[in-house]
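In this supplementary section we document a worked example of the pipeline. Step one takes a protein sequence of length 433 as its only input; no multiple sequence alignment statistics are reported here. Step two produces a three-dimensional model, which step three serialises into structure tokens for compact storage. The input and output of this example are shown verbatim.
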Amino acid sequence: MLFNQLGLSAELLRAVEEQGYSVATPIQQKAIPLVLEGKDVLAGAQTGTGKTAAFVLPMLQKLQKKSDGPRRIRALILTPTRELAAQVHQSVQTYGAHHPVRAMEIYGGVSARPQISKIHRGVDVVIATPGRLLDHVRQGNINLSGVEMFVLDEADRMLDMGFIRDIKQIIKQLPAKRQNLLFSATFSAEIRELASGLLNNPIEVQVAARNSTADRVEQVVMPVDKLRKRELLSEIIGKGNWRQVLVFTRTKHGANRLAKQLEGDGISTLAIHGGKGQGARTKALSDFKAGKIRVLVATDIAARGLDIDKLPHVVNYELPNVAEDYVHRIGRTARAGHDGTAISLVCVDELKLLKDIEKLLGQDIRKEFVAGYDVDKSIKAEPINKGKPPRSGAPKAGAAPRRNKARPSKNARGGQGKRPGGHSNAGQQRRAS
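The serialised model returned by step three reads:
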């Protein structure tokens, strides 16, 4: 179905055409008419399916009708991460190029003063992460009583990151009469419970089977010993002359360490994770998109919602602790009809995680054994580090084992307060938003 068959205005169609699009994706075909009709929608859509335009385009059209009185916030979009908020904001600006609509981002990691100034000057659309938005609400900086449309994007990730209390507090600030849209990659029992309290007689649309992966992603598992992962990664990047690779680690410490090692191998690399300041994260992503660096090493939290055109390669340097996160990771490639490859470097410690992923997918992932990297079958599986930094003085990957048995200091043994699954607790996530 073409965009010009969906009931969109000439101004919006012009903006869509300027981006080179003419045919709507399945989620856009199903959701846009419903949103234009004013219906509440519960939409199931994976990342990379065009879901952002599915709510941004009809939202902009509905905002064309001017409201009475002074400018007020008429649409609120909640996202789980800063990066996704920035990308949704960019979509609003892109598709609203021929509309007099003011939009702004609200998230943590940056000064609140410029945000307050923009709010006071008047905006129509706010795209925000829950933590910082709630801070503004509590400080009386923002008034949400005029919101006509409320969008909860990537609701499943919102719940995973512990934002449910913040979301409920924000909803209390909204007027009872409004249109609600909830987008989620999965429809768990928790999502349906949230939807039942948020949506009014919603129409449910779903364009992909639960936890399905992109059809155009070539998935490969490369078995390798843990201490040789970095060596293998450098080799496949170099031999393949890969110019743009998104690499996933489980922890920010692992991301920093791997980025430093790849730099030492002569491969331009930057790390992106929740421990980085927003300015550093934005610059790293910008440099990666522009081709100034070849490898971006990321954690799941930082990479959620990253939209990188024509990204050819994703590498799971470490498998995620939660099988569903594998689907989100490899969904960074093969977007908008392009092909992509997802390679997982799997050691003996991760065989249980791999089994969980294959069970979720309902299929085995093809194994490819690389010459010169035969797996040492005498190595026994060890428990996976779920977020704690390495002990002070501990050997790095590939280094000889320590011979002394001196006990590490009390500080060196301390953890980082992570909850099972490698995600930070809810309080930490809210401060990072």
